[in-house]
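[Help] Beginner question about ligand-bound structures

Sorry if this is basic. My supervisor gave me a protein sequence and a SMILES string for zinc ion and asked me to "get the holo structure". I don't really know what that means in practice or what format the answer should be in. Inputs are pasted below exactly as I got them.
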Amino acid sequence: MASSSEPLHRLELGGVCLEYRLVRSARRTLGIRVDGKGVRVNVPLRARQGEIEAVLRQQGDWLLARLAEWKNRSPAAALAEGKSIPWLGQPLLLRRAEDSTRSRLKREEGVLELRIPEGHDLASCFVRFAKTHARALFLERLAHYAARLGVATPPLVLSSAKSRWGSCNSRGEIRLCWRLIHFPPGLVDYVVAHELAHLREMNHSPRFWAEVEALYPDWRRARAEIRRLAQTLPEIAGSN
Ligand SMILES: [Zn+2]
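Answer (accepted):
No worries, everyone starts somewhere. Holo just means with the ligand present. The predicted complex, written as structure tokens, is below.
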């Protein structure tokens, strides 16, 4: 993780002043990372400033586009009444439930009416609702693919991990991140199939990918799509 103690550098890029943190370490290539904290450039110990800036200029359009994307998704903008949020790949408009007896998902209308009790906020109510739905969906898909793999449905643990969609441990327990509920159902299936395949192969060897392919033939496209969509998901404050 970049810390604020790393020096902040500036570079003029197409009329915009790009600020970035520079991290030197024993690595061979230059890597650029853009996220909510800004731009971080990881470089080999001896990289020259001129070379670093040349690469940044070369990547200039991409860098500025990514930074703009991040600015447009502040938590407040992403999750509020009247805003939409991706739900199984479709946008859902968030509304406060009027009669407030319970939350209602109106898929055909593309609306999620959330019950927000006194003292609660929309984000925490959304997360609770999403987790309930995620658990039910994951259990159903796990049962489906476990049957195809010829294994018993493994225990499910719902996670909030931001960097990991799923994992499988040596006890055969599968963890899936509730945030998968943002993705189209086919991508949820890919993550489910991937983690189940680990029950057969606890590694990412060719044998493992053969297991995945038997369960989910289009895994390459799904994996790439998840990487792409992951960059576009809303940040939800206090969602752990
Ligand atoms: Zn894996």
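A couple of things worth pointing out: The pocket of zinc ion is lined by residues 194, 198, 204 (CB under 6 Å). The chain has two domains: 8-71, 123-230. Feel free to follow up in the thread.
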